[in-house]
Amino acid sequence: MNFHKWRRTLEHFVWEINPYDQPPARAALIRYLRLAAVVTRDVVQGQLRLQAMSLVYTSLLALVPLLAVVFSVLKAFGVHNLLEPTLLNFLAPLEQKGVELTHQILQFVSKMRVGVLGTVGLGLLLYTSATLIRKVELAFNSIWHVRRGRRFVRRLGDYLAVIVIGPLFFFTALGVTASLASSVWLKPLHGFLTVAAKTVPYLLVIGGYALVYVFIPNTKVRLRSALVGATVAGVLWQTAGFAFAAFVAGSGQYRAVYASLAILIIFIIWMYLSWLILLVGAAIAHYHQHPERVTRESREQSMLLSNRRRERLGLMIARLIGEHYYSGRAPWTAEALARRTHHPLLAIEQLLAAYSVHGLLVRTRDNPAGYLPARPLETVPLSDIVRAIRSTGLERGPLPPDGVVDAVMEKLTAAAEEALAGRTWRDLVLSEATTAPSETVAGEAGRPG
């Protein structure tokens, strides 16, 4: 009973207290607790875990080809010797098994001669390597609610940059750090450089995560949000490494059961944890940049708007787009409308898609895309907008015929048509009678419909 009372008190503090009415420190605590709650929910509900499992499978297929390409690039610049300590650092939680696995991987990679593979072989090698990056992009786009991926030409250039240029900068930074730490000219600063040498790997991990969060998703990610997610992910990864090392040290029973397969199973588990931590950091960056998506309801539950709320939200979107159109301001984007109305982005995108299908809106070529009226507002009956709003949602096939119900539905449709007869989209935008209710929607948008 005490546990339920404590849980109810915590839920009340996190979700039912308005942070805007609290002192700054208390408000920040509530926001971070909400962010931690929604990220934990995403992990528990399984979406992030399924994506991490998928990335593990792809990693096992693409690991050797990717390392072969990276090794060839690094060898061309004379910094290939830094690949071994990096792999040792990544596999450090596996202790002695990690050392053995690192030597086996490097031995196999070093025997691959990329130059003698030919055009087809090199193409397959690059394709297999790019497949892993493509999987990461799809996972990040899902976290960021991005439905459109990069175009093929841009994807090709970006992926080649990640595969070729990314490792070169990373390992060059490691080399410079090692050189500075052992430089004779900087002996007076030896103590400082020793601390810096120990700190730089952590900073490189956080910096690498931040670059991935900024670069991989097909959307604009603010650097501050990326750094927040990267810092949490970096700390989690280092902490998980210590915990996993303790687990490996006490895993004698697993080795006895699985024999020679134990190293492979432990490696897969560590890879899964590493991918999961990377995705958790991406989720934190996403929610930090879009606090309006930090809601008590899950992503699926937040889509369950009542018919009345959906119609009011749809009319408000139409009015806002019309206002910007008449005043010559920049077109509304889906994300800007989500922030303005305090509603989930998916609900906004559903309504915008319905308007587009019915020929009411057109998308701009900007990134992110804006939305403009497809026709002059005075030529669009208000009933067409309502009809488009009511078309949103899933149609699960025709219902069995029912004359009585069909007659009632026809009367409801006729009543709506009659009530809106002669009124256009322009009237919704310019009429003072419609301004107040629409503003009311904005005020009520944060409350459940």
Characteristics:
Arc Repressor Mutant, subunit A; 449 residues; mainly alpha; 2% strand; disordered C terminus; 3 domains
Largest sheet: 3 strands, antiparallel
Unreliable stretches (pLDDT < 50, length at least 5) are 433-449
Q: What's the shape?
A: elongated
Amount of helix: over 70%
Q: From the alpha-carbon coordinates, what is the Rg to the nearest angstrom?
A: 28 Å
Descriptive overview:
It is a single chain. The protein has 449 residues and is an all-alpha fold. The chain has three domains: 2-43, no CATH class; 46-293, no CATH class; 301-444, Arc Repressor Mutant, subunit A, CATH 1.10.10.10. It has helices spanning 2-16, 24-45, 47-76, 83-90, 96-111, 118-143, 152-181, 190-215, 223-249, 252-258, 262-289, 307-327, 334-341, 345-357, 382-390, 403-419, 425-430, 432-444, and strands spanning 332-333, 361-363, 370-373. Strands 1-3-2 form a three-stranded antiparallel sheet. Helix 6 (118-143) crosses helix 7 and helix 13 (334-341) crosses helix 14 (345-357). Residues 433-449 have low confidence and may be disordered.
